[in-house]
Amino acid sequence: MNRRTFLLGAFAGTAAIALGVNLYSPEFSLPDEGEGKDYRLLFGVLLPVMLDGALPDVATHKLAAQNRTLDAIKHSIDVLPDEQQAELFELLDMLENRLGLLLLTSSMTPLLMRSPSELTQMLETWRHSYFALLQTAYLGLRELVMASYYACPEHWSRLHYAKPELFK
């Protein structure tokens, strides 16, 4: 066996194993809250990175703000048009899938196992990417998170915004 045959066989075997791991789905199911899949865990990982500096410093208030924002994200997704929902769900599925992560981030490490600095670097890479698709993914996630966070009236004080009063 020559070296080229060995390397080609090793590459083909590695690709086959990676594809098999990606396609394998275990025979268990998690309880589902509704008709659609909930991406609460994925957004829970991305929220502290995307809202860095906007979240309160006190741990209990920070957790409450994150939970309120996660609920607002779910509501925001529900009111999106069907085409945008489909695109967003495709992106979120790719972020939860190891092969999708490999294509989007050049790493198969799940987002849960990445440090905040690695997540920030990933998002900045998307933001300044030459590929319009990655820029669109970054902007879509960012706008969804920011709009959902600042849709909650309790977060308006950080913007120094007060709701207009109709009757004084």
List the helices and strands and how they pair.
Layout: H1 3-23, H2 40-50, H3 59-78, H4 82-96, H5 98-105, H6 116-127, H7 132-150
Helix pairs in contact: 2-3, 2-6, 3-7, 4-5, 6-7
Q: From N to C, what is the helix and strand string?
A: HHHHHHH
End-to-end distance: 88 Å
Structural class comes to: mainly alpha
Mean pLDDT: 84
Helix content: 55-70%
Tell how many strands the DSSP assignment holds: 0
Unreliable runs? 30-35
Query: Shape from CA axes?
Result: elongated
Major beta-sheet overview: none
Number of helices: 7
Our estimate of the beta-strand percent is under 5%
Computed over alpha carbons, the radius of gyration is 20 Å
Task: Report on this structure.
The protein is an all-alpha fold. Helix content is 63%, strand content 0%. Helix 2 packs across helix 6, helix 4 crosses helix 5 and helix 6 crosses helix 7. About 4% of the residues have low confidence.
Question: Quick gist of this model?
Answer:
The protein has 168 residues and is mainly α. The chain is built from 7 helices and no strands.
Any key phrases for this structure?
7 helices, mainly alpha
